[in-house]
Amino acid sequence: MRIRGFKKAEILNAFINDRGGISLYILAVLLIVCVVLPVYAVALEKLTARSSIDKIQDAITISVSSSYMALMPEYYTDAVIRLDQAVFEEKLNKLLSDNLEREFPGIEIVEEQVFSEGLPTQCLRGNVFEKPGVHLVVSVPIRYSAVRMLLPIKNGELTRMTVHGDVLFTLD
Question: With contact defined as beta carbons under 8 Å apart, do 106 and 140 qualify?
């Protein structure tokens, strides 16, 4: 078989007689396979996780705003927010599960606090609320794909990602 005027044997002899040419070729392939591809996989996994976190935080913001707006006519009077915590939390849990259950099945609300009185105050994660708002921490099962070769995760095993979201109410 000839490749552009060379026989296979001539090409192989050129690599062997090149004094380390074949070694350099093998080293380059090993470098790509053992270093570049795993680093790229980890970077891609981080971008995917960051995208998931952003989606979850957006869903938290939308759910809190929607549940607040649903109760607004009853509990909103002249720049003072008085919420029935049980009713608000019930609406919030329903909206949050509706917004996230399709993409992230198995979501759990780990922490939930509504701050409407006694401000300024601090949430369980250390953020200060000077205005009325909601503190939420949700736990979502995710399946890592690329990082499983570096972490002690079995193929297809789920791990839980915790996302913290604080949303302030607007009085407008």
Answer: yes
Residue spans of alpha helices (H) in 33-151? 37-75, 85-100
pLDDT digit string (tens) for 93-135?
Answer: 888 888 887 788 888 888 888 887 777 888 888 888 888 888 8
- H helices of 76-162, in order, are 85-100
- Which token pair is 39? 């680093």
What's the whole-model pTM score?
A: 0.68
Count CA atoms closer than 13 A to 86's CA, side-chain side: 0
Question: What is the distance between the alpha carbons of residues 7 and 107, in angstroms, rounded to a whole number?
Answer: 62
Q: How far is CA 160 from CA 9, 61, 108, 144, 172, in A?
A: 55, 21, 10, 10, 37
b/e 88-125 (16+ beta carbons within 10 angstroms → b): bbebbeebbbebbeeebeebeeeebbbbbeeeeeebee
